[in-house]
Amino acid sequence: MDPEVTIINLGGVNCYLLKSESSFVLVDTGFPTRRSALLQKLEKAGCKPGNLMLIVVTHGDMDHLGNAAFLREKYDTKVAIHPFDAGMVKDGSMGANRKAKPDRLSLVFKIMMVFTRRLAAKHPVEKFTPDLEIDEGFDLSQYGLDGRVLHIPGHSKGSIGVLTAKGDLFCGDLFYNIRGFRFVDDLEDYESSLKKLAGLKIGTVYPGHGKPFPISRAMTYQAP
Fold this sequence. Notes:
By secondary structure, this protein is α/β, with parallel strands linked by helices. The protein has seven helices and 13 strands. The protein has one domain (about 5-220): 4-Layer Sandwich (Metallo-beta-lactamase, Chain A).
């Protein structure tokens, strides 16, 4: 069964609620300042304690993990992240395991980073230890979703995506669909991730920022 996808846009940052029959998997959690809006959208979709099987955090930036600890407790669920980004969650540092100077950083993203740092100072992300550290090929069927995890570094060492059996890719910040957005921590990792995706059957990309788009566009427009 192909999952039903609910796009939850929280001020330019996307979370994705994937419903399979009567259970859910949530990909990313948004800024902590948008918690009320997130809860309203989850409730409207029928997500509640007992049927949210897993939260997958695509990488350790605040705009993607900001509500993870809160949701874990409220929904009595588990949070999964790649081991290379687990330090960001445990230590509360978005710079953990990243280069001092990223290989590609656009002006728009520099401005966003200033905003995020200021927000983090006022609303620190709760530090916690993830329940699961997941890597390439992790099977999500045990959580009710016909899909698997891809390790797609580039934006961060531990960036991961969720690829469903249908061919939908939820890619975090490997790709964007907002003009001017660009943050590649490690260009070599990024190019390796592109090569990996080129060999897979993918239809639609669901980015962390911006609207979904065909994979064919990602493999051309998004090239460094």
